[in-house]
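Exercise 7.
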Amino acid sequence: MRRRRLAPLLAVSVTATLAPALTMSTAGAAQATAAPAAASTSAAKGALDRYVKQKPKWKRCDADAPAEFQCATIKVPLDYRAPGGEQLDLAISRIRSTAPDKRHGVLFSNPGGPGGPGRYMPLSLGERLPESVRQKYDLIGFDPRGVGRSSPVSCGLEPEEQDWLRPYKEETFDKDVAWARDVADKCREKTGDTLPHITTRNTARDMDLLRAILGEKKISYLGYSYGTYLGAVYTQLFPTRADRFVLDSAVDPARAWRGMIQWWAEGAEPAFDRWTEWAAERSEKYGLGDTPKEVGQTLWDLVAQADEKPIEIDGQPTTGDDIRSGMRGAVFTPEFATEAVVELKKAAAGEPASAKKLPAPAGTARPADGSEAPDGSETPDGSEEPDDNSSASFWNVVCNDNSAAWSHDPESYRRDAIEDKGRYPLFGDFASSVKPCAFWGKSVEPATVVNNKVRSLIVQNEWDPQTPLQSGQALHADLKGSRMLTVLGGEGHGVYPSGNACTDGEVTAYLTTGKLPAKDVTCEATAESNAEARKNQKRDVLPGTPLPQRSPDRF
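Solution. The predicted structure, written as tokens, is:
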């Protein structure tokens, strides 16, 4: 895949514009925070300096939240090229270091998405991170622009319009094209002038502005899934501001975002082969077949039967497409996939079966920050968060970040879906069929080419259903100062912390000392760490990392 040059728009050198003493209230620091060349006028510098001088009004986040969990709202420019123009709210949070005398700095975090609210991340992390890490950092969270309480965007989508992973069928493709066009039109109409500025690059700029407001020279960072891409973009825009960066379950920047969605289908095929081998070795217990080929055929026979007539389980009809989309993520955890097929087989034969053991089909997303918003959750202006905010913010980022990745010819999606269903029968057509980005406008900026020597630690499970191992390896190659920690046999999306002494020890050592491993590290998965993946695969619980849990149709 060809990589694009960085546009001159962002050619301002952050090192050249750093104030010598790194005083965060200076115009020089403000200019460096903004990055775009258009912000280099004296008026723009003055506007940015006013942003940097903001004093967050910290208060207890919620009445039932711990007193140390504090929240505030700051203002950020809608468009960093014109910082004197419209503004957005940025909802932020913090939990201070538990040992101020041992404090190293701030640890920003992002739970994934795009569209995952991160304001509650400090609370989740505070409960799970080792005390040695808690002592070193103030934990900083934020809802990215357009998400949660940060000027949330909406496209006015009904629940059925948010069901976006759609299988290819000749008889429904025209309806799917109409759906994709309608979603794009609704987003343009509802989001208006805000739409083109909801991007990963601008979220990275918001992070650096927040860094400046907090009076910090650098930030450390813990990002999951989509959060690894956000972290990588930050290192590209602000390499001298990046301290200790942990990128857990990594996105390949060159494949953002259509290629990453398609990787869900590509990555499922080796996991499918691994699952059939696992189940065949245990044929006496599960009865799905004595060979991998027989196990696979058992599944495809069930898919064919459900295509003819949906299989009822606990009164719920399950189609062949439901089976394919649900098994896409399930096969990364062989025991879970095997138990699911056993139940499907029972139901297909008219025997009692439990839907609780089945994977949820691909569908709409739920919050990715591991928390539930309080009842009556409101934005800073008193309005309620839109019901479709997760989907609206997802499409804003996925389509705005790199419009060049998306064809505007609907027929190209038909061809890709047909071809990829043949190559990747479990999920190829779901991943490659038409999406709203086909009808989106041109990105304000080109996609970010990540290519730097910032020191960071990339952490990756071998069997990750959302960001395959190859994706982490690609980011490792782009971040030439990075080390990679691979968990052999590791299942699930998200690694740290997992209770695995090897992986937790390596990541904790880096966060507490700043010293990367001398070379790439390989750890072996443990039964305990993989058990978390199996637990999170259960129906009605979001598959993914123990921190945070996430939806199977997000990163």
